Amino acid sequence: MRAALLFLGFAAAGMAHAENCSIDIKGDDAMKFDKAEVTVSASCKKITINLAHTGKMPVAAMGHNVVITAADDMQAVATAGMSAGAAANYVPADDKRVIAHTSLVGGGASTSATFAGSLLKAGGNYEFFCSFPGHYALMKGKLVVQ
Ligand code: ZN
Questions:
Q1: Are 23 and 47 in contact (CB under 8 A)?
Q2: Domains of the chain (ranges plus CATH)?
Q3: What's the 131 CA to ligand 1 centre distance in angstroms?
Q4: How crowded is residue 141: how many other Cβ atoms within 10 Å of its Cβ?
Q5: Distance 134 CA to ligand 1 centre (A)
Q6: What digits encode the pLDDT tens for the residues 78-114?
Q7: Residue 53 in contact with residue 27, Cβ under 8 Å?
């Protein structure tokens, strides 16, 4: 059973090599993401963000999400997200600058969100970040689309 699962895992990894349509990020209790840069393919019909919080702290103290914006919009969206509050996952509602975002999770939890690949353009300047108040200074990275 375990061998079969491993085989499936390798097969999936092989397919992802040609076209990468997922953004897999881990966040921790040290207010850090495990990646500073993620690359996705411009040809993806859909792109899925998978966020795992590997820490133990509760969402109210050390919540993490992943928000994707154009690099120039990151700071303004982070500020607007803070005003939107925890109930809104610290993401401003109906804000066109937000290309995609996950929900907010605490330690030990995971979340995913899927969005249309057509929202990203090859060679564009994008960032992913956590919009929990104060986190984006440390929890951010470059999203490369190629
Ligand atoms: Zn965070």
A1: yes
A2: 21-145 (2.60.40.420)
A3: 6
A4: 18
A5: 8
A6: 999 999 999 999 999 999 999 999 999 999 999 999 9
A7: yes
Instruction: For the beta carbon of residue 108, count every other beta carbon within 10 angstroms.
Output: 12
Q: Which two tokens stand for residue 8?
A: 């499936």
Task: Report CA(130)–ligand 1 centroid distance (Å).
Answer: 5
pLDDT the model gives residue 7: 56
pLDDT digit string (tens) for 20-70? 999 999 999 999 999 999 999 999 999 999 999 999 999 999 999 999 999
Structure tokens at 3: 């061998």
DSSP 48-109: EEEEEE-S-S-HHHH-B--EEEEGGGHHHHHHHHHHH-GGGTT--TT-TT--EE---B-TT-
Using the mean position of ligand 1's atoms as its centre, give its distance from the Cα of residue 27 in Å: 7
Residue 18: predicted pLDDT: 77
Q: What is the pTM of this model?
A: 0.87
